[in-house]
Design goal:
mainly alpha; 3 helices
């Protein structure tokens, strides 16, 4: 079972070569696990769940922040997919 601490870690550090390797490895692992279409679908489902909770209603400013975050993650996934396609060549 995963714990929140596993996903709330610090920014990676190391030499430029180590960081480049880290980036390439993580992008490759991500798209080996989740296709581009699946990634975008799961991202959309995550944002939907944050809006449609029955326990609480998000204030407008929090909702706007989540939408902006979603939009940035969406384009980040698209950009990472382009990098991943280049790494495969």
């Amino acid at each position: 079972m995963y714990t929140p601490e596993q996903f709330l870690h610090k920014r990676p550090s190391g030499t430029k070569a180590e960081l480049d390797t880290f980036v390439k490895t993580k992008i490759k692992e991500f798209f080996e696990t989740y296709s581009l279409d699946d990634s975008l679908e799961y991202l959309w489902r995550m944002i939907q769940q944050s809006f449609y909770t029955k326990r609480s209603v998000l204030p407008n400013d929090e909702r706007a922040n989540l939408i902006a975050f979603y939009e940035y993650l969406h384009t980040l996934i698209l950009a990472a997919n382009i990098v991943n396609d280049e790494l495969k060549k």
